[in-house]
Structure prediction request, 323 residues.
Amino acid sequence: MEINATSGGAEGQHESYHQKLENKAEESAHHSEDEQEESKKKMGKKTLADVIQEMKTFLWNSETRECMGRTVKSWGLILFFYLIFYMFLAGMFSFCMYGMLLTLRPYTPTYRDRVSPPGVMIRPYLHGFTIAFNVSEPSTWKPYVNSMHHFLQAYNDNIQEEKNIECPAGRYFVQDGKESEEKKACQFKRSQLENCSGIEDPTFGYSTGQPCILLKMNRIIGYRPGSGIPVSVNCAIQKGNESALRSVDFYPGNGTFDLMFYPYYGKLTHINYTSPLVAMHFTDVKKNDIVPIQCRLKGEGIVNDASNDRFLGRITFTLSIGM
Prediction:
């Protein structure tokens, strides 16, 4: 009996000890929660004046004499570092620009090893390289006609006679003198395009299903095409039935670029220069069909078969003429 009593007393003490530990843990948890709530209440009770005061202290702390967390010395060192840093960058950039400008010439490009021979382009150029219209529907071909008239305004005979001079045909028009001197330009009159001039036929043949297309070489300063022999133009079916293109007339003459329009001296000195043109009058093309045509330059030094540039010495377009 005594042993049981003693055992029961020990168990009671053990339970009492655990109970005390649990009570302390609960009290500690409650105390922590109370502190968090008090902290939240204090933060929630912060007024606008307190926020403004803290901001003022951040901007200027009179006790530590700091502005935005830094002393005057610290700010001075930072500003001095960035001043030197950006001055160095500006100087390096200016030096690089100066070095690059020393290699440039205002009238003639210093490096011209990647621009010869010339590429070509056509007019009209409205919707890519497909010229499609229906003869019986003027609204389909009038945009092409308007584009041609607009492009040829600079080639009007009166403007050419006023601004440019007559030059001897068949030879290069080389002009000596200082590079900065203004160069004269040879006349290329609109009337030289004959049936494709838009003078006798204001529709350039589009109203009858016999369209005119203008071809010009890109300008290259100092370039003399043909090595003394005029460069000519030739057109043919690119792929398909060759009978789809039965007749093409070329203007002026037999479709050549006269040597007198070369060399070109650049837009700064060759102010009134107008690029020579070759007009291609497609008088007999298969109707109601898509006809792919390729026109090429032919002459000494001309490249027209480069696989990586479809505009170098040649151009491909399609004609689709409905009746």
Remarks:
- The two ends are 129 Å apart (CA to CA).
- The longest strand covers residues 290-298.
- The CA atoms of residues 35 and 41 lie 10 Å apart.
